[in-house]
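Continuing the series of single-chain predictions for the mutant panel. This is the parent chain; the variants come on the following pages.
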Amino acid sequence: MISASHNAYQDNGIKFFSNDGFKLPDEMEARIEDLIVSNEISHLRPTADLIGKAFRIDDAEGRYIEFAKRSLPRELDFQGIKLVVDCANGAAYKLAPKVLRELGAKVEVIGCEPNGMNINAGCGAVHPEQLQEAVRRHKADIGIALDGDADRAIFVCEQGTIVDGDHVMAALGLDLHQNGLLAKQTLVGTVMSNFGLELCMAKAGVKLLRTPVGDRYLLERMLAEGYNFGGEQSGHFIFLDHNTTGDGLISALQMISLMKRTGKPLSELAQAMSAVPQILLNIRVKEKPNLESVPDIDRAIRESERRLNGSGRVLVRYSGTEPLLRIMVEGEQDGVIKEVAEDLARLVRTHLT
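Parent structure:
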């Protein structure tokens, strides 16, 4: 797949999938890159008439539409649902509105005029402001913002308010659990999911497992341990009962299905969980030693976790792209989490800046 995901077209790169539809592991991607860059396999490259051929799948559109529809109960339709979909001038510009209309929804569309350079430009999942305004203007029941490669979806409720991925996972996860469809009574999230999601799931008897940030790490954990639903705050959701990777349209179909089956608006479904207060501090550092190798910081993190005593959590990690250390503290008491975060920040500045 040629994709810049949610970025501008200048960032286009190549994404590979295996023959069973899953993304390749990091190690395999790194090995492929090394083989190409090092010219290690240049003597194996075919030339002239030995080079393979590309074949067009003429009925790909129809096959995908039927594939997406099969993720819904056969008898369900979207009659009576009015929605706005922002296709980010990307991959789903044609098919997303078509699928939603075929299911009976009344659909308003924005971000559906791609020219090869306007993908994700001021629209889509990373720029949902247009969608919020359109939902209010059209008095729609829901707004759906896809990103350029359409593997994620951000939702806007009927009031024009963004519903983040944690609230979406809470609503959909509880519904799966109540219908006996959540594998091993477990939801898979990332280290960035709000502690409120963990509290919500625990109250329902569901376990929240956390992985590093990134949908590939969600998927690896789900496949390794037999889970079927997981996601991120950013709008990546994986329904392994329906697909091998994230698919923004299938995510949208599941959310609209929940609204239709329950008769509840998205604003009410989003109240399945309450986010707890969160403080995020970014501290510029000169170097990035393993935090366990700095005894004072390591000890302070463990003491902070004990101080929260199950009513919150602490996450300290380096940025993968900048010389920053990120301190995130969540908990039910504003004053306590502020003190914890500031105490950790002072210690980090003493040792790493």
